[in-house]
Amino acid sequence: MLSLKSSLLACYLAPLLVSAVHIDTPGRRHANVTRSLHKRGQEFSLYDGGPVACGGSVSGSDTNTVALSHFLWDGGSHCGQKVTIHAYGKTKTVTIRDECMGCHEGKLDMTRGLFAWFTGGPTDEIGIFPGSWSFGDDEEKKKEEEAQKQKEEEQKKKDEEAAQKKKEEQDKKDKAAAASSSSVAAAKSSSSAAAKSASSSASAATSASTSASVAGAATDAIPTGSFMANANSLLVQIGSLALAGYQA
Fold it and tell me: What angle do CA 125, 127, 130 make, to 5 degrees?
């Protein structure tokens, strides 16, 4: 009976004991880290440093190293990758150099130096604190975004300058075409006026010649030296002058 009770008690206590075991990689001691198979919110724990899974070792006072959960480790593919951490109103970009066997997916394990950099106080009194983190360097992302924005602005400026230049060239062409049309119209008008003037002069000359011929004929018909001949000649000349003035 006692043996049965002992077996039942052992079965009940075994899972509790397993869940409280600290799991460390060789050369590393995790503080207040327990294994969890459930993904929780993002948070941070600490360890004392030592040999790291990515090669080499780190000291406990290091402020640039974190260990990534074994759930995300992926055979060490994240070694050397940057993560940006936000906590206690501070932001810092650090490097993944180790694997945390006791961390759930959202937890990063920090060296004591980095842990103290955020908390500003004794590490042993805190153990774990909440915050947020993401893969990548926020500063680099910001620089890339600014560079992309500047590139887009420069391209926009170039496009505007090209459009303005094209418009100016088109305006010049339009003005040149308008000036050419005006010159052609002026030349046509001048040619027409010259032709009209020449026609008027020829007509006047013809009229004068005709008048002179009529006057000559009339004068020839009247005896020379008579009063009527002189009067008739004068009237003919006056008529010729009046006709020429009217036609002009």
Answer: 120
